[in-house]
């Protein structure tokens, strides 16, 4: 028997080619806040609601350990899903378009809370991000 139960994603670490460009994307476009910088490691910790997204420069001390940077044919992860509220599809699409980011139309997908609308977009390093709204059915 396990002595623990999983609660939520604590953090996700993304290796990025241009840490300042990615910092601008995650703060300006997605609304993350900088929690802590570790310039000695080439790492920036960002808040993502109650979780964190860590950006690691692929050319920094930690990033070099992962080899060549990811791209369209070499992924670090398939995607990261970020729960957002409110989920106003048109407002989100307009916000992303104003930031020069394209996203697909929202469709119903299953997530941690149940089935609800979500959409996919890519960050500057082609990491796929899913923005997920509240469940409409458990």
From TrEMBL:
Alphabetized GO MF terms: lyase activity
Is Lyase given among the entry's keywords? yes
**Keyword Lyase among UniProt keywords:** yes
Q: Which residues form the VOC domain?
A: 8-134
SUPFAM superfamilies recorded for this chain? Answer: Glyoxalase/Bleomycin resistance protein/Dihydroxybiphenyl dioxygenase
Species name: Pseudomonas extremorientalis
Q: Which Gene3D superfamilies match?
A: 2,3-Dihydroxybiphenyl 1,2-Dioxygenase, domain 1 (3.10.180.10)
What protein does this entry describe?
A: Catechol 2,3-dioxygenase
Question: What is one Pfam family matched by this protein?
Answer: Glyoxalase
| Cleavable signal peptide | none
> Which keywords has UniProt assigned to this entry?
Lyase
Q: Which PROSITE patterns match?
A: PROKAR_LIPOPROTEIN (PS51257), VOC (PS51819)
């Amino acid at each position: 028997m396990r002595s623990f139960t999983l609660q939520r994603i604590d953090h996700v670490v993304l290796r990025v080619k241009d840490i300042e460009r990615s910092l601008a994307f995650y703060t300006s476009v997605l609304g993350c806040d900088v929690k802590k910088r570790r310039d000695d490691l080439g790492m920036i910790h960002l808040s993502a609601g109650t979780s964190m997204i860590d950006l690691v420069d692929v050319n920094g001390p930690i990033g070099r350990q992962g080899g060549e940077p990811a791209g369209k044919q070499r992924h670090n992860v398939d995607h990261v899903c970020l729960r957002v509220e409110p989920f106003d599809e048109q407002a989100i699409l307009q916000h992303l378009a104003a930031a020069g980011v394209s996203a697909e139309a929202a469709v119903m997908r299953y997530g941690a809370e149940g089935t609800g609308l979500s959409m996919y977009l890519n960050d500057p390093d082609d990491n796929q991000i899913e923005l997920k709204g509240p469940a409409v059915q458990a």
